[in-house]
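Look over this one:
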Amino acid sequence: MHIPSTFKEDDPTKLLKIMQENAFATIITNDSDGLPIATSLPFLIKQKNDQFILQAHFAKANPQWEHLEKNKQVLVIFNGPHCYISPTWYKTQGVPTWNYVTVHAYGSATLFDSKKTATLIETLSDKYEATIATPWKAHNSGIKNYAENLLDHIIGFEITVQKLQGKVKISQNKTDDDLKSVVKALHQSSSEQELKIARLIQTQLKKATNNE
């Protein structure tokens, strides 16, 4: 990924936060002909000391899982908030652009056996059921042979991350007056994407003020 130094983010804590907050990510592999193939999946992101581990699962009907048997090198893209920025919002001259947050994780993938896949599904379900008043549980779902039937149709995997690239492009190359004007314009929107970018720019402005 091309990352101008102004927009580079390499703080592991911040990269982890971006991935965890945007865990529905896209995994890219290459088929036997070298054609890139992509699937969007919910990921679990773990950190063991300085090592990041990504876990997810494919439907077995999706042949992409077979790529991991032949070429373990993969790319996972976590996209955070993003929005259009109009040059009419600046105090100075500018051009149309897009502000966004993204993390690219490169690593080596390993397929799970059925036992590890079952554990992954349980952990993933528990994570997203945590905010539900009466959380769903496989053992009390009422579905006969749920686990056995499910495992016939999915396969889990994990990726040991070997390289992380983070890009946070929030108009850092503009003046403080420009940034304040952009924030004001974004706050007129009801879009959560635009409001998130506005909050990130405000945080950037506060840091700049504290460093003066």
Remarks:
- The two ends are 32 Å apart (CA to CA).
- The chain is about 35% helix and 35% strand.
- Strands lie at 8-9, 24-30, 36-42, 44-48, 51-59, 73-85, 97-111, 154-169.
